Amino acid sequence: MTDSRDELAQLRQRIDGIDDQILELVSERARVAEEVAQVKAARGEAVQVYRPEREAEILRRLSDANPGPLSNEQVAVLFREVMSACRALQQPLTVAFLGPHGTFTEEAATKHFGHGATFSPQNTIGSVFREVESGSAHYGLVPVENSSEGVVSHTLDRFLGSELAIVGEVELRIRHALASHARALDEVERVYSHQQGLSQCRAWLDVHLPEVERLPVASTAEAARLAALDAKSAAIASEAAAERYGLPLLQLRIEDHHGNTTRFLVLGYGAPPPSGRDKTSLVVSSANRTGLLYQLLEPLARNGIDMTRIESRPARQQGVWEYVFFIDVQGHAEDEQLSEALSEVRDRASLFRILGSYPRAI
Ligand SMILES: O=C(O)C(=O)C[C@]1(C(=O)O)C=C[C@@H](O)C=C1
């Protein structure tokens, strides 16, 4: 007994010593980040505090060097917070996100920017864009696609009338919980969630709550707020949202696909330089004629460009049945091969806009 107490005391003493060293080093790192800010300011250019390509480079290097036992994800969480605090010393960033508090978009925003940023919840995707366009927020976070439910069309459509660029992407594993004051599933009479939440848990609901009314609402966080109001309601939401609204968890991990992942975009001004592992998003269109899509994509295929996504949307301001294509490709628009391919696409298109080149999600 005494032995194990001594051993514990010794181990704790070692941890204290290590913590002192970590604190010393983190403080030194923060002082260097302040020097970086002075150098940036002395160059006289508009100061870009947030450098997504540099942050991606740091996280990838550390992930390659990670000796364990912490996972690469855990190492990334720790170092994102360190960078977030260093960034905040230079300039506190405001990030608008699709709210309210407790949404998966908030989780994605915090994952990406860390707790050193200030987060500003918005009611709609449109107002996230507006906050950044008007300068009220430095950056914005919006969902763009889910691995099982597909595209968030509002987000794509909003780019057509905006000058904003994509400066980053975030991928988040979406784990849904059923949260309710009900003590058992058979007490639940209605389930609230965002339409995407209901769809992502459709098979689970069919089996476990087949008779229960499914009510789509504006967000999973709003679902949690509503479900907290009476014990016969439940919400499909994140554990964080359930906790925020004081809702007990009835069942965890009810999403039909366990790899369920949503991709979010970071909106802003500016164009991050290449980070080494980038993605480029563009929107293109052409006069409505035979072979249109082939004509537009052929230069990409010929130059060996890897296309990761294509989405067609009605052009709206053009002819009634004309379409625009949102395309993601691997690489940075400044890479030689991609730059060549894109200029050929540009020559063939009536509408061509690079929405952004940015580091691939980590
Ligand atoms: O390298 C820079 O430009 C910095 O400002 C330093 C730092 C960091 O803490 O490492 C902080 C913010 C940037 O987004 C990138 C990196």
From TrEMBL:
<dbReference type="InterPro" id="IPR036263">
    <property type="entry name" value="Chorismate_II_sf"/>
</dbReference>
<feature type="site" description="Essential for prephenate dehydratase activity">
    <location>
        <position position="262"/>
    </location>
</feature>
<keyword id="KW-0963">Cytoplasm</keyword>
<comment type="function">
    <text>Catalyzes the Claisen rearrangement of chorismate to prephenate and the decarboxylation/dehydration of prephenate to phenylpyruvate.</text>
</comment>
<feature type="domain" description="Prephenate dehydratase">
    <location>
        <begin position="94"/>
        <end position="269"/>
    </location>
</feature>
<keyword id="KW-0413">Isomerase</keyword>
<dbReference type="InterPro" id="IPR001086">
    <property type="entry name" value="Preph_deHydtase"/>
</dbReference>
<dbReference type="Pfam" id="PF01842">
    <property type="entry name" value="ACT"/>
</dbReference>
<dbReference type="GO" id="GO:0009094">
    <property type="term" value="P:L-phenylalanine biosynthetic process"/>
</dbReference>
<dbReference type="InterPro" id="IPR045865">
    <property type="entry name" value="ACT-like_dom_sf"/>
</dbReference>
<protein>
    <recommendedName>
        <fullName>Bifunctional chorismate mutase/prephenate dehydratase</fullName>
        <ecNumber>4.2.1.51</ecNumber>
        <ecNumber>5.4.99.5</ecNumber>
    </recommendedName>
</protein>
<feature type="coiled-coil region">
    <location>
        <begin position="1"/>
        <end position="28"/>
    </location>
</feature>
<keyword id="KW-0584">Phenylalanine biosynthesis</keyword>
<dbReference type="InterPro" id="IPR010957">
    <property type="entry name" value="G/b/e-P-prot_chorismate_mutase"/>
</dbReference>
<feature type="domain" description="Chorismate mutase">
    <location>
        <begin position="2"/>
        <end position="94"/>
    </location>
</feature>
<dbReference type="GO" id="GO:0046417">
    <property type="term" value="P:chorismate metabolic process"/>
</dbReference>
<dbReference type="GO" id="GO:0004106">
    <property type="term" value="F:chorismate mutase activity"/>
</dbReference>
<comment type="pathway">
    <text>Amino-acid biosynthesis; L-phenylalanine biosynthesis; phenylpyruvate from prephenate: step 1/1.</text>
</comment>
<dbReference type="Pfam" id="PF00800">
    <property type="entry name" value="PDT"/>
</dbReference>
<comment type="pathway">
    <text>Metabolic intermediate biosynthesis; prephenate biosynthesis; prephenate from chorismate: step 1/1.</text>
</comment>
<keyword id="KW-0028">Amino-acid biosynthesis</keyword>
<dbReference type="InterPro" id="IPR036979">
    <property type="entry name" value="CM_dom_sf"/>
</dbReference>
<dbReference type="InterPro" id="IPR002912">
    <property type="entry name" value="ACT_dom"/>
</dbReference>
<keyword id="KW-0456">Lyase</keyword>
<keyword id="KW-0511">Multifunctional enzyme</keyword>
<dbReference type="Pfam" id="PF01817">
    <property type="entry name" value="CM_2"/>
</dbReference>
<dbReference type="InterPro" id="IPR018528">
    <property type="entry name" value="Preph_deHydtase_CS"/>
</dbReference>
<feature type="domain" description="ACT">
    <location>
        <begin position="281"/>
        <end position="359"/>
    </location>
</feature>
<dbReference type="InterPro" id="IPR002701">
    <property type="entry name" value="CM_II_prokaryot"/>
</dbReference>
<keyword id="KW-0175">Coiled coil</keyword>
<dbReference type="InterPro" id="IPR008242">
    <property type="entry name" value="Chor_mutase/pphenate_deHydtase"/>
</dbReference>
<keyword id="KW-0057">Aromatic amino acid biosynthesis</keyword>
<dbReference type="GO" id="GO:0004664">
    <property type="term" value="F:prephenate dehydratase activity"/>
</dbReference>
<dbReference type="GO" id="GO:0005737">
    <property type="term" value="C:cytoplasm"/>
</dbReference>
